[in-house]
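dumping this here so i dont lose it again. seq + smiles for NAP
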Amino acid sequence: MGDTCVGSHRVKLAIAFAREDEECRLCRHERGYRRASLGWQLIAKPPKRGGNAHPLAESLCLCPPPYVSRVIRLIEENSALIARRAGRAIQITAVTARDRSKDRGVDLSAYRWVDDMGELATADDVDVVVELVGGSDGPALTLARETLSNARALVTANKAMIAHHGSELATLAEERNAALKFEAAVAGGIPVIQGLRDGAAANRIDRVYGILNGTCNFILSTMEREGLDFAEVLADAQAKGFAEADPSFDIDGIDAAHKLSILASLSFGSQIDFGGVEARGIRKLLAADIAQANALGYRIRLIGLAEIDGENGSATIFQRVQPCLVPLLHPLAHVMGATNAVVAEGNFSGRLLFQGAGAGDKPTASAVVADLVDIARKEVGPAFSMPCAELEKLPRAASAHRVGKTYLRMLVADRVGVLAEITAAMRDAGLSIESLIQTEASNDGSALIAMVTHAGAEQAINDTLAALAPSDSLLGEPMVMHILGE
Ligand SMILES: NC(=O)c1ccc[n+]([C@@H]2O[C@H](COP(=O)([O-])OP(=O)(O)OC[C@H]3O[C@@H](n4cnc5c(N)ncnc54)[C@H](OP(=O)(O)O)[C@@H]3O)[C@@H](O)[C@H]2O)c1
């Protein structure tokens, strides 16, 4: 319950929990709110269709994870403020999850529990379904398709589903004139989707990049601070609950690739192309890489970068997630812990930096409810930055011609002539060294060479590594990381 002022009269609102036989105490609108039920997928619904609906209500129904509890709490706690901003109340009408008996940290007894998620897409008292189940396919996708097909709005935090099926779902949403919103799917609580789609709508954006995975950034920041290797930090992060038991989506760059493909589509007005993202994660990083990068004036960050190469007509799209060396003067070098940051370069706005909590229950709930407020305000608009028919299908750019500085780390046999062998391969490929560090030989007779090259084509790096591959001077696979340019 809370006071709010909407239109010309002040209304005492009971947003989600008013009984069916209650009326609005101020405007006396009859039976405006029904006892809501909230499920583990959040679904929102406005007034009953064609019935005596309260003019201010937006009803909603929720589907599952732990941060749904936070969505529920947020809607309950900030109900009056949300109603003032949205112009109508948001009312939770149903919830669902697999296990009804699980303690989810909020009292759900007031809400209708639905066992079959499919019911949410057709229920009369549901206008918005909030899908927080996860997974690119399976029940989440079925629910999304059914919801939009039935002309209900869909709010989702599911980056995997949007990355794989975003075009199909956006087309369905357009056909049915239903809203499809996914602010929580990219960079948690940071309003980057809205920022790119609306705030930067006037700009041509040719480059978008950033730190898109909080787990990786937490691991990298900790490796740097503690001087530990990747495996040790990952084990600790898992023990503390910062990393999943199966962390592969995060640490292999897949999660960041999902988000990058969404950002690229929004930024460039192109069709989403998750399959075109090259993804490499942070598994192979050593504490020594972090230390050498620091000594050379850089920090290592997992960067997702998407860029348009070429002009209209011949434009191609380049998308890559990989650990990069970030110059200490660059703002992304100072993004620590589980924080996310996105940089977009608009031709009139200049460089835009969005930064904030990339995950977690409160930021994610904040993004989910922001989408609900948009829907309550009837700010529907295209799911991506323009109608689906306007989104360009861009060919993928090749990487070999890309020019930049590169970090190369090699574990080598500590014997005379090894460095000459490496530099000869680089010379033959047309690559020169800007700075180089060689560590003292360890007891096992190996030494570590880390270097940063002058700007050169990626093909030259490939040629160097191909020339060195048969050599028994190299002990293990070299580590290649590109350096984030200005
Ligand atoms: N966690 C975050 O901070 C965060 C941030 C941004 C976006 N996301 C996105 O949010 C989604 C969920 O992620 P999560 O890590 O929170 O997942 P999770 O912990 O596995 O939660 C999934 C929830 O979905 C429910 N569920 C699964 N299958 C279902 C079915 N067939 N019918 C009904 N309910 C079902 C589960 O119910 P039970 O509890 O009964 O098993 C569980 O509550 C993903 O798309 C993820 O990318 C998460």
